[in-house]
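thread from #wetlab-drylab

HS: before we spend reagent money on co-crystallization trials with D-malate, can we at least see a predicted complex? here's what I'd submit
DV: go for it
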Amino acid sequence: MSEYNDFTMAFQDSADQIPLLLIHGFPLDSTLWELQFQGLEGMSRIIAPDLRGHGRSDNPPGPYSMEMFADDINGLLDHLGVYRPVILCGLSMGGYVLFEFYRRYPERVAGIILTATRAGADSKEGKANRDKAVESVQKNGIRPIAEAMLPKLLAPASYEDKELVAYVREMMETASPEGMLGALQAMKNRPDSTPTLAKIDMPTLVIHGEDDQIIPLAEAEAMFEAIEGSEMVVLENAGHLPNLEQPEKFNEAVADFIESFFEDEEHDHD
Ligand code: MLT
């Protein structure tokens, strides 16, 4: 209720819904979440930033770090005046950012959704591959990396959906080389988030595609086992982008998770 002169005006504002903040992966942008904006409309206030160097955000010179990405999101929430804790959902690199955000700003987080991601840092071989990727982007731009990643991103069945493949290809090929260089360094130097798992003390959902070729299912199972009270949903016929490959099932899992917060709110009011 808001008081205005001599009468009290009631109003509804969808911005009052619990915020769901979606963090995209590499080398993608917030258009990754198109089907979540459509499918979860009315359940939640959805916020999906383009991380620095990605999508329509600026490309400040790199290297970037997970701390920078997390601080950028903190600044966005301040800018939007969102002071109520949010449900954070991170996909792949977005999950790496999520862990850093949670360590830095735990009071801003109400719940966690870890999608197609892992807690561990890069292995020695992984770091060497990042260096090779940096060299490749410096010499030849983003296209060779996009070409090499595309056949691994989706489940075999998803490649039959030509529109989906074209959508993902376009997202990758329009990525900015400067941004990609910055993000590759951030991923290479990210800390191990495994010790964070045991400290997570809030509702957590792990969602993973059964056919993820980039981050094996075992990584998600390990997070699920290490986070007390967490839930896990494995989606069939989904690879590394389960939110696009199985949008209905993905949205259903997220909607159920969001609904559990409504129930908590109702109990708070009892
Ligand atoms: C991503 O999908 O965000 C990246 O491929 C993750 C990674 O390279 O570690």
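DV: The longest helix spans residues 247-269.
HS: ok that's useful, forwarding to the group
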